[in-house]
Known about the structure:
K(+) binds at residues 65, 125, 161. This protein is α/β, with parallel strands linked by helices.
Amino acid sequence: MQRITSATAADLFDIAATRRIEQAASAALPAHTLMRRAGLAVAKLAMAIAPHARTIWVACGPGNNGGDGFEAAAQLRHRGFFPVVTSIGDEGMLPPDAKASLQRARDAGVTFASTPPSDYELAIDALLGIGSTRPPEGAMADWLEKMHASGQPVLCVDVPSGLNADTGTLAQGVSPAQASTRTCITFLTLKPGLFTAQGRDAAGTVWFDDLGCGAFKDQPTARIAGAPEAQPRNHASHKGSYGDVAVIGGASGMAGAALLAGSAALHGGAGRVFVGLLDPSAAPVDTARPELMLRDARTLDLSSMTAVCGCGAGEAVGELLPAVFSSAAALVLDADALNAIAADGVLQAQLASRGKSGSPTVITPHPLEAARLLDRSVGEVQADRLAAARGLAARFGVVAVLKGSGTVVASPGEAPPIINLSGNARLATAGTGDVLAGMIGAALAAGRPAFEAAREAVWQHGHIADTWPADAAPLTAGTLARRAPV
Ligand SMILES: NC(=O)C1=CN([C@@H]2O[C@H](COP(=O)(O)OP(=O)(O)OC[C@H]3O[C@@H](n4cnc5c(N)ncnc54)[C@H](O)[C@@H]3O)[C@@H](O)[C@H]2O)[C@@H](O)CC1
Ligand SMILES: Nc1ncnc2c1ncn2[C@@H]1O[C@H](COP(=O)(O)OP(=O)(O)O)[C@@H](O)[C@H]1O
Ligand SMILES: [K+]
C-alpha cells in the first residue's frame, strides 16, 4: 500500500484499461483472491485512520465495490471492531465474489442494519466503484449526503461513489466533498479521475494497493510525473547559458500582469528578462525589480529569445501575434494571446503551422480560455479535462497546459498527458497564471524541451504553494513569483 503525493511518479489507467488488468489478474489467481486482498487493505487503512473507532459504518453497493465493503467489514470484525453494514440492492443479484464476501461478513458476526448508525467514527464508502453508470438516487444518494454532511472521516473504496474515474466529474446531485476528511484507497490501478477536476476534493488523500498484481500492465491513459529533477548549473556558465525571456503584454492598466511574468522568469533562473509593454505610457523602469529590462514590445528581436506573450495584453496583442509566431525561438502563449487566437481563424492556422514546424510552443489556458479555443462551453471542457488538453495539443501541434485543480499537460505526440499533483487553492488568486507563464518561459529559455519545461514549471509553481509557510503572509502572485514570503 502506497500513499500518493505530489512527488509520486506513476502511470494512470482509465476504466477500460483497469477492467482489462482486472480480468487478466483474476484469471491468473484463485477465485475471490482480489476481493479478499482489497477488503483486507480497506480494513487495515480503516484501522489506521480510526484506531479508536467504536462504530464503523460500511455502506455497500450492489456490485463488487460493495463486495469490497462486505469483505472489509468481515476483516474489521475479526480484529475486534464493530462495523455496521447498510447495503443497497437485491442480495440475489450480487456478483459471485460480492456474494461470497457478504457471507463471510455474516459468518464473522458483522451487524447489518437497514439505516446508517446515528453515531459512527468512520464511514466506509463502498457504494460504487468503476461500475458507476448513473447518478445515485434514493437511499444511495441519502447515504452519500449523510457522509458528506456528518463531518466524520470517510474512507472511499476504489473510487469515491459518484465520481467518474476517467474524468473526475461528480454525478449529478452528489455534493462536492468539503465537510469531511476524505481518504480513498484505490485498487489495481491509479485512475485519472482521482486527480483532476472534482477528483481531488472527492478522494482526499489517495492510497494505492496493486493487490499483488503489479506485473499486469496496459496502455497508460495519463501519468503523474512526480518532482522534477534539479537542473544543475555548470560552474563555467554565464547569463547567456540560461537564455533570454521576452514578456510581451501589459496593455494600459494591466502592466502588472506582464511584470509578474517577468519577475517569475527572472526568479525562475532566466539569464536576462525583457518586458515588452504594450502600454505606450508605461514607466521606463520597474524600480522594485530593476533587473527587468523594460522595452516597447514592438522593438524586441525575438529570434533568439523565448517569448511569453499575452499576460495582461488586451486586444492589441492580436496584431503582434503573426510576427511573434514567425520569429520567437520558443514561445509561451497565455491569457489575451489565447483569446485573440480563439477569435481569429487566421491566427489559429498560423499557430498550427508554427506547431507543425516543431518550434517549441506552450499554451497555458485556464478552462474558460480553453473553452474559447475549442469553441465549447467551460462545462464541456471540465467534463473531460484530459480530452480537452489532448484536443488542444493535437489541434495546434503545441504543448497544452490546461490549468486548474489537477492541471493537465498534454503534448501533441504520443506521450500520455501528465496530471500535476502539486498546488492547492492558495493559487486561486489573481496573477498566479502570469507567474506560471513566466516560469515556463524561464525553463524553455534554459533549453528544456517544451513538454518538460511545461510540466516541470507547473510542478514547481504548485510546490511553492504547497510548501508556503502556514504562518507567512498569504500567497500573492508577487510573492509566488519571487518564491519567497515578504
Ligand atoms: N471483481 C473483483 O474481484 C474485484 C473488484 N473490485 C471492486 O469492484 C469494483 C467494480 O465492481 P463492479 O464492476 O461490480 O462495479 P460497481 O460495484 O462499481 O458498481 C456496479 C453496480 O452498481 C450498479 N450501479 C451503477 N450505478 C448505480 C447507481 N447510480 N445507483 C445504483 N446502482 C448503480 C450497477 O448496475 C452494478 O450493479 C471496483 O471499483 C472495485 O471496488 C476490486 O476490488 C478488484 C477486485
Ligand atoms: N484550486 C487550485 N488548485 C491547484 N491549482 C490552482 C487552483 N486554483 C488555481 N490554481 C492555479 O493557479 C493558476 C491560475 O491561473 P489563471 O487562472 O490564469 O489566473 P490569472 O489569470 O489570474 O493569472 C493556474 O496555474 C492554476 O492551475
Ligand atoms: K466507492
